[in-house]
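Quick one: examine the sequence and fold tokens given here and explain what the tokens say about the fold. Here goes:
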Amino acid sequence: MNRFRIRAIAAIGIIVATVIVFIDYFATHPSVRHQLHRTSLATLALLVLLYLGTVMALALINASTLRLCQVSLGSSENLLLTAYTAVINFFGPLQSGPAFRAVYLKQNYKINLKNYALATFVYYFFYAAFSGLFLLSGLLKWWLLALIVIGLGIMVGLRRSRWLQPRLAKLDLRGWYYLALATLLQVCLVAAIYYTELRSVAPGVHLSQAIVYTGAANFALFVSITPGAIGFRETFLVFSRHLHHIGNATIVAANILDRAVYIVLLLAMAIFIFATHARRQLKLPAEEG
């Protein structure tokens, strides 16, 4: 059995197990149902707008990442590629969105995949750094400034590394701050989404708790093999309760709300992609059979 099949079976198993746990928890804990009943149509509309904002942020991140590789896409093409990638990443096998994007860029723009992978790791560095600051903000508070200084020091150190320097020299790092700002925007929008969801099901949740909650949830993406980190995110959030002090019932209710809104948005994006003939606009090969 090859590695791909093992990962696929593991991902399906984790998703099924998570769904079973959610259903059982939902059925045996009336408080979760009561919390979800608090969600208003205005809150749902706000969540959709915030999630659309994250799609725009991802488009900016993609443009900034390509800028490091000295490649430029038109705004409409970049946005369409971002939406297409998001849909494939969730509904496709094993979060295959990034692989699809890399193949597309290689075929249409002859991008150097090694350089693109390195630029993507620069994005992951910023994503992890900002998420780490969010996660530790409840403990360190005024130490955040010191952490930022340390983070910048690490960046300078890596930039001067004998191993990284010849590799980073292939990237146009003059625009690295665009990628940093776009990533910060993404993380802040995700925090706004989680804060809105948490406040909807548990009005007593504070912004500071939602910020720590966001940091914990974001780190789940680094180890996840399931769409949207299903199962992994919830696990990270439960094990980090001593940091954000949010109860299990609220975590479950907020994640049910989050998954529902996100899936509906992705389905709407999929309809938009088909309606706008994205396959032809992106010059993708027609499916066989």
Summary: The mean pLDDT is 78. The CA atoms of residues 18 and 266 lie 20 Å apart. The two ends are 27 Å apart (CA to CA). DSSP finds 14 helices and no strands in the chain.
